[in-house]
């Protein structure tokens, strides 16, 4: 599937939604999300008029003048999408060949190891290598999930967009309710999966914690505190694949027209004056050029 076809599928699949609302802030949201889907690309999002105007960039965004990138405009997104990614907190225990380890230690030390995964098609446990590490910024938007499994509770702290395996398919944790079933590792023998029951799900105000996640080869899942979680957004949900915040900050508009946007970015990786220019190439109204403006 081409990148253009991928980004145009937004209206066909489920997505976060909210009513547009004005921000009332001097500094506006700027974010670029690294999106590992069928093809790696980068989603540039700028807050305008209470929503995030969005462009998909096939190659890494330019940090210096002289480099121009194609940017394919996609549909507007709600402001909440600026933080759209599933992550865990530092002390979450992940099962590895070397024994239980904290996900924060795995990410901070970029450890190459195997984690326990589940082959859904063959219905068997497998060891799969970690192929990516994500340290995705600080947030206080975490949920506490309590799962009852064989007369004991498992506690998992994760962000609302993390995907959990259930007997009826994958679901975002924010969509779970008390009494729902989820897939867990059998706590007594550790050699098979069983079902756990959601005991409670509540929002936590943590005062700001670093977010962490890993990418796992092939099965794209692993056990976090014995609960089977996905390391990617499932096919059928908008943004399918793994989403990582590549850069984030604020921006100040300088010149905004229908065909030209010039703005000052104050991010971690991108800083300075940037432009988006509509190409109008062969009737492709959604094709733009994105580049850093040379200082005069």
Descriptive notes:
There is one protein chain. With 296 residues, the chain is mainly beta. The chain folds into two domains: 3-84 and 244-292, no CATH class; 93-240, Endonuclease - Pi-scei, Chain A, domain 1. 4% of the residues lie in helices and 55% in strands. The protein has helices at residues 3-7, 103-108, and strands spanning 28-36, 40-48, 51-57, 68-77, 93-96, 99-102, 114-119, 124-149, 152-158, 163-166, 169-172, 181-185, 193-216, 221-224, 227-230, 242-256, 260-266, 271-278, 287-292. Residues 1-24 have low confidence and may be disordered.
Features:
mainly beta, 2 domains, 296 residues, five-stranded antiparallel beta sheet, Endonuclease - Pi-scei, Chain A, domain 1, 2 helices, elongated, eight-stranded antiparallel beta barrel
- Characterize the overall form: elongated
Question: What does the main sheet amount to?
Answer: 8 strands, antiparallel, barrel
Mean pLDDT: 85
| Structural class computed from helices and strand pairing | mainly beta
- State Rg: 20 Å
Q: Mind telling me which CATH architecture of the largest domain this is?
A: Beta Complex
What is the C-level CATH assignment of the largest domain?
Answer: Mainly Beta
Q: Give the topology string: H per helix, E per strand.
A: HEEEEEEHEEEEEEEEEEEEE
- Summarize the amount of helix as a percent range: under 10%
* The CATH homologous superfamily of the largest domain: Hedgehog/Intein (Hint) domain
Number of domains: 2
Q: What name does CATH use for the topology of the largest domain?
A: Endonuclease - Pi-scei, Chain A, domain 1
Total number of beta strands: 19
N-to-C span: 41 Å
Widest sheet: strand ordering: 1-2-3-4-19-18-17-16
Query: Unreliable runs, pLDDT <50, ≥5 residues?
Result: 1-24
């Amino acid at each position: 599937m081409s990148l253009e076809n991928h980004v145009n599928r937004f209206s066909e699949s489920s997505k976060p939604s909210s009513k547009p609302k004005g921000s009332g802030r001097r500094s506006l949201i700027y974010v670029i999300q690294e999106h590992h889907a069928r093809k790696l690309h980068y989603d540039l999002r700028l807050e305008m008029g209470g929503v995030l105007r969005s462009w998909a960039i096939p190659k890494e965004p330019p940090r210096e003048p002289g480099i121009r990138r194609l940017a394919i405009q996609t549909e507007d997104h709600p402001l909440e999408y600026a933080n759209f990614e599933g992550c865990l907190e530092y002390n979450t225990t992940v099962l590895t060949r070397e024994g239980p380890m904290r996900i924060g230690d795995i990410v901070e030390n970029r450890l190459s190891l195997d984690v326990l995964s589940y082959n859904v098609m063959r219905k068997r446990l497998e060891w799969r290598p970690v192929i990516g590490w994500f340290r995705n910024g600080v947030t206080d938007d975490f949920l506490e999930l309590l799962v009852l499994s064989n007369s004991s509770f498992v506690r998992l702290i994760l962000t609302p967009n993390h995907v959990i395996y259930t007997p009826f398919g994958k679901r975002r944790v924010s969509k779970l309710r008390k009494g729902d079933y989820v897939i867990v590792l059998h706590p007594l023998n550790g050699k098979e999966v069983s079902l756990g029951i959601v005991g409670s799900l509540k929002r936590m105000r943590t005062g700001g914690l670093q977010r962490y996640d890993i990418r796992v080869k092939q099965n794209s899942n692993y056990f976090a505190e014995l609960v089977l979680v996905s390391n990617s957004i499932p096919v059928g949900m908008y943004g399918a694949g793994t989403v990582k915040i590549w850069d984030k900050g604020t921006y100040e508009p300088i010149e905004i027209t229908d065909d030209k946007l010039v703005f000052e970015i104050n991010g971690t990786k991108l800083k300075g004056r940037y432009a988006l220019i509509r190409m109008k190439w062969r009737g492709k109204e959604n094709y733009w050029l994105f580049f850093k403006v040379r200082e005069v």
